[in-house]
Amino acid sequence: MLSVPNESEIIGDRVATLAPGQPDVTHGTILYLEDVTLSFDGFKALNKLNLTLDDGELRCIIGPNGAGKSTMMDVITGRRKPDSGQVFFGQNIDLLKHQEHEIARGMVGRKFQRPTVFEALTVAENIELTLLGPRAPWAVLKARSTAAERDRIDEVLTTIGLIQLRHQPAGILSHGQKQWLEIGMLLAQNPRILLVDEPVAGMTGEEVARTAELLVSLAGERTVVVVEHDMAFVRKIARTVTVLHQGSVLAEGSLSSVQSNPKVIEVYLGETPCSH
Amino acid sequence: MLFKTLFAGHERGGLIVMLAIVLMLLWVSIGNLAVPASSSWHVSTYTVTILGKFLTYALLAVSIDLIWGYAGILSLGHGAFFALGGYAMGMYLMREIGDRGQYGNPNLPDFMVFLNWHELPWYWYGFDHFWFAALMVLLVPGILAGLFGWLAFRSKVSGVYFAIITQALTYALMLAFFRNEMGFGGNNGLTDFKDILGFSITENSTRVGLFVASGIALILGYFIAQAIVRSRFGRVLVAIRDAEPRTRACGYPVAQYKLVVFVISAMLAAVAGALYVPQVGIINPGEFSPLSSIEAVAWVATGGRGSLFGPIIGAFAVNYSKTQLTTLAPDLWPFVLGGLFILVTVFLPKGLISLLGRRKKPVEESETMVINKAIKQETSVAADRKTEVL
Ligand SMILES: Nc1ncnc2c1ncn2[C@@H]1O[C@H](COP(=O)(O)OP(=O)(O)OP(=O)(O)O)[C@@H](O)[C@H]1O
Ligand SMILES: [Mg+2]
Predict the structure, then answer these.
(1) Count of CB pairs separated by less than 8 Å, A with B
(2) Which CATH fold topology does A7-269 show?
(3) Edge-to-edge, what's the strand order for the sheet holding A193-197?
(4) Does the predicted TM-score (pTM) go above 0.90?
């Protein structure tokens, strides 16, 4: 028998200097998907998908309907487990070994396609519930809001521009404001990666512009992944664009390079994802 | 601000109802004990008992509102916890009879002698002590709710499915308690109580004592429920009610929250049942009937779900109408109840308490205007910021 040190031992050594739950990004990679496959009754929604995200980048993901964009987010956030493949957060944390709610705390935050805020609670209470802190029933029952928490709530509300509406029930917010509130709720959990699914659908032009501004300002400190069909919006914020098609990556690069890629043009049936 | 006034409204409404209960406790106790029967101010013992019964119904309604109004858990089997609490108290009252039963057996309740039993079943041990019975009033329903809730919430059973299985639970218990071999008096249940804590159960002062105890239990239950819904825990419950998957995604163990509040609610219902039994003088399997549980939910809906005090008003209003009507035309009651339920859902979806809010409409409108202004301001600030960036 050969005595080869097993993988976990090596990883154990390497992460010794990191706080638990902290990703190792010494190689600049914050998220790493390899050969991820997930099928629904034989239909491969994700098909050997490979994706690498650099720490702090802003990545746009585009692709036709049903390309697997939302499913990819399901896998990263632990909502669905893939049939095969690997998903790593940093070099050290295997996301497939974590539960959805563990991943949501400080690792990956996700904004769903349809905004869901807690309508009966106030704007500030919406943020309060998403702040990092105790989650177990008894601890929460005893919890009293601290000055630090109130400061953090104000900070988040200022970032998303809803500070004046803090005492309003979230139910009265406009569609765009709900989307921002939801982004704020993600920020409150202090995620390293922010996944944003179709943020500007149904927004007014002004709201779209503000959302672009907000997402750009968030990148750097965090890694932001935006799935969006609105190409005008993608152009506004895009650095690197990944095109998904039938569950795998079709092209990747700058917006102009993917737009001139013949495969991409073919997938979009000549209707290039851009028109302006 | 709208929300604040609404909330203040709730706060005010709750305080008014609590105050009304305190006044009722004073007025009825004095009217019964101190005012001579000849006076028109005298309150009959019959009225004391009826109102005491309503107070326990109101506590049951509060317990249902705590889970339905705030956590969105619709239990159509809460009568089961009420009845179990009642049975635990009934067992104590049976043991209190001692050798004063028809058969004069100091060790066995009458129905056991009648069944030719020679020994007290093990699960009757301890019930000759009040403290033990009181503990069981909380523990038995609490543990049952814990097991049941754990199974249901863990497998994410919710909504109509949950409502149906709670009906099944109470129905199954009813069938079980009907059986003589269960050792709870079968069809006849537990009755012929003599005294409680040494006080004769038929005595006026005992009646008033039980009535006041029911009122205090209701007030305490109300404030416990209010403390829960006003805490951050309560806000998590509301979050679960309105967007359960989102709450789960935020890292809250939703099933545990539902379990905790379900158990607390079951215990409140059980206390109500325990106070109900000595006042009506009997507990039988009929209390487990699925219809009773549905009626209790109707009180909550009628009064106003999600306010904690609305259900108290609902329990009194519906049951008062019921006592009035059942003396006039008992057969009509189910139709009236059904009709009432439909009317309330269609015209007063927020229950009777929304009638109280109606008066204040102009205020609310101005509040809405303030909010709209705030939003407009917010958007223009946003627009300014945008031009700055450009
Ligand atoms: N729960 C499911 N059961 C079966 N098939 C599913 C399920 N969820 C998604 N799919 C299928 O998987 C494929 C990928 O879906 P996904 O929602 O990831 O696409 P998408 O790229 O987000 O599309 P869109 O742009 O419309 O949001 C689609 O063909 C979809 O029909
Ligand atoms: Mg999608």
Answers:
(1) 114
(2) Rossmann fold (3.40.50)
(3) A108-111, A193-197, A223-227, A58-62, A240-245, A248-253
(4) no
Collapse the DSSP code of A133 into the 3-class scheme (helix H, G, I; strand E, B; otherwise coil) and give the result: coil
Structure tokens at B284: 């039988």
Average pLDDT, chain B: 89
| Ligand 2 geometric centre to CA of A72 (Å) | 9
Nearest of A210, A208, A119, A211 to residue A172 by alpha carbon: A119
B388 at A interface, C-beta within 8 A: no
| Pick from A179, A159, A206, A205: nearest CA to B383 | A206
Q: Which of A105, A140, A169 sits opposite B236 (nearest CB)?
A: A140
Residue A14 half-sphere exposure toward CB, CA atoms < 13 A: 14
Q: Looking at the CA of A248, which ligand is closest?
A: 1
The burial of A119, by beta-carbon neighbours within 10 Å (0-12 exposed, 13-18 middle, 19 or more buried), is given as: middle
Radius of gyration of chain B (CA): 24
Domain extent listing, chain A: 7-269
Contact B363, B5 (CB under 8 A): yes
Here the tokens at position B309 are 């005090």
Is residue A121 less than 8 Å (CB to CB) from chain B? yes
Give the type of residue at B132: F
Q: Quick one: which of B273, B131, B129 has its CA closest to B214?
A: B273
Residue A231 and residue A209 in contact, taking contact as beta carbons nearer than 8 Å: no
Average pLDDT value for residue range A216-242: 91
Q: Give CA separation, B172 vs A227, A248, B244, in Å.
A: 51, 53, 30
CA-based nearest residue to B149, from B134, B168, B165, B126:
B165
Q: Which residues 6+ apart lie within 8 Å of A101 measured at CB?
A: A135, B248, B249, B250, B251, B252, B253
Pair type for strands A93-94 and A58-62: unpaired
Prediction ipTM score: 0.81
Q: How far, in Å, is the centroid of ligand 1 from the Cα of A269? A: 20
Nearest by Cα to B191 from B205, B207, B206, B202: B202
Give me the pLDDT at residue B221, please: 98
- For residues A264 and A269, what is the distance between their CA atoms, to the nearest angstrom? 9
Contacts of B157 (CB under 8 A, 6+ apart): B165
Q: What is the DSSP letter of A5?
A: P
What are B13's two structure tokens?
């409404």
